[in-house]
Every structure is written in structure tokens, then in C-alpha cells.
Amino acid sequence: xxxxxxxxxxxxxxxxxxxxxxxxxxxxxxxxxxxxxxxxxxxxxxxxxxxxxxxxxxxxxxxxxxxxxxxxxxxxxx
Length: 78
Known about the structure:
The protein is mainly beta. It contains 1 helix and 4 strands. The protein has a 4-stranded antiparallel β-sheet with strand order 3-2-1-4, with no helix packed on it.
């Protein structure tokens, strides 16, 4: 199965709630919780929940705002 990775260089298996990530030189986000795909996706397309089965992501809060551009570095801060 092909896995698309949007955060090249991060070991997503080690990330936990409370960890902070720096995006570029300015932006800092903090992982709040892990989220799973929800049934609200059915309102867009009935197939989405089944297509997303086994995938999850993070709910994050913005600690420091700034401008993001494609290709910016991302690194774990804490």
C-alpha cells in the first residue's frame, strides 16, 4: 500500500500529545490529540470512511502563527 508522507523526516510513530513542531522559521504547532476519520465524511461521499479506514492524524493547536510555504522544514521542538 502506498503511503503519502507530508512531513518528510519526522518519525510520526514517536509523536505524542504535547509535542511541539516548528514549521519553517516562525510557525509552531502543538499536538493536542490523535484523531481518526469520522462519519461526517459521509456527507461528502458515502465511501470516504471506508477509504480512510486505518488512517489517522493529529489535532493540533497553533502556538505561534506565521506564513507557511511548500517545502519548508518541519522539526520536533519538544
